[in-house]
């Protein structure tokens, strides 16, 4: 096993190289704090790897991997129900195609900007690598807020967005999927527009489709189920299990809902979930079927849960969801929702494990605090890879022209998540960071991509 003290001089050289590349990232991409943070987090994990593999420095792997292969920005004009014209900005970052065509979701949210898209796309490179599937990293979206919009407005916006994006994607080029603000409805509208633009039915162009036109079973549940499968493996290694754990969850979208459902199937009690207005606390355990109906069918606010479950309590501060005592915390809402102060409160209240459902929901300071207090931590790029894993399985089914059963897809998902845990854990131990899944996931994801880039030369 390689130890952290091996080749000290080589490690100093590696650290200087990584610092130099990071400084270049910051100077070339000023004010892009989200992108800076994710690059630093991954680079901090790679010092020993670069020291032991100096050929990565010699071939400028890090210099190349931080620069997107392509960043596309476009305007998205659309007309609301009153006839008023609006213009939003759309983005797609095609970050790295070393191991396969670009793959990553589309996010419709006011916070979307180049920094957010690049942070998500950079993270996606390594997440996709971890799945073991032949898919590269990409991400996209628009600064459009779907909240409060009619179905007709959502349709017009989605069609206008795809009218521009559709020129740059395809089954062997770039395969988008859904993310925050983009579900089956939006995917359907975009797929229809792409089909109209190109005059042919290419099921493998986009994933997250409806089952009656090329979608896959378990796709809706995949990210939430995958988080639980990963955390289950993490707990199992400590002689623990989900049964009788108290779970706090943030968010109430697909990721949150199906993480809650699977955790309850395994015997846990889920006591919270939230939306952008506030959170609910149900000491008897969240009724997931009620949340599903409110958020997936009626598209209303989580506050309405208390009308049907009057014993539950509603609080109008969504960030305070982490004040509720729990043994397992699953942040599934958005980035940066757990800071150092919040992490300290979770530790004081007895948390033993944290599994990231959202992308980068925990600050670096909070992660370090969890490590110091021996809280088992499942990083997003590993723990929430279930969505893209099943997206890749959807692509495989599209290519073969048939569909697998729910049980078969779910079984493959569980196997993939176990492999991600095992590979991350093994990489951490090999490079002298046993038990650190943040570093292990970064290393395991990086090595596959770096070796593929080496094999393909400087392109």
From TrEMBL:
Give an example GO molecular function: nucleotide binding
Task: Locate the residues binding NAD(+).
Answer: 223, 254
GO BP annotations of the record are: glutamate biosynthetic process
Q: Name one GO cellular component term.
A: cytosol
Q: Which CDD domains did the record assign?
A: NAD_bind_2_Glu_DH (cd05313)
SMART domains the record matches: ELFV_dehydrog
Describe the location of the Glutamate/phenylalanine/leucine/valine/L-tryptophan dehydrogenase C-terminal domain by residue ranges.
216-457
State the superkingdom.
Bacteria
Identify the residue position(s) of the site Important for catalysis.
179
Is-annotated flag, keyword Cell division? no
Which positions does UniProt annotate for substrate binding? Answer: 103, 124, 127, 178, 391
InterPro entries, from UniProt?
Aminoacid_DH-like_N_sf, Glu/Leu/Phe/Val/Trp_DH, Glu/Leu/Phe/Val/Trp_DH_C, Glu/Leu/Phe/Val/Trp_DH_dimer, Glu_DH, Glu_Leu_Phe_Val_DH, NAD(P)-bd_dom_sf, NAD_bind_Glu_DH
For this UniProt record, give its keywords in alphabetical order, as a comma-separated list. Answer: NAD, Nucleotide-binding, Oxidoreductase
Q: Where is the active site?
A: 139
Q: Which SUPFAM superfamilies match?
A: Aminoacid dehydrogenase-like, N-terminal domain (SSF53223), NAD(P)-binding Rossmann-fold domains (SSF51735)
Its subunit composition reads: Homohexamer.
Sequence similarity: Belongs to the Glu/Leu/Phe/Val dehydrogenases family.
Name assigned to this protein: Glutamate dehydrogenase
Give the species.
Salicibibacter kimchii
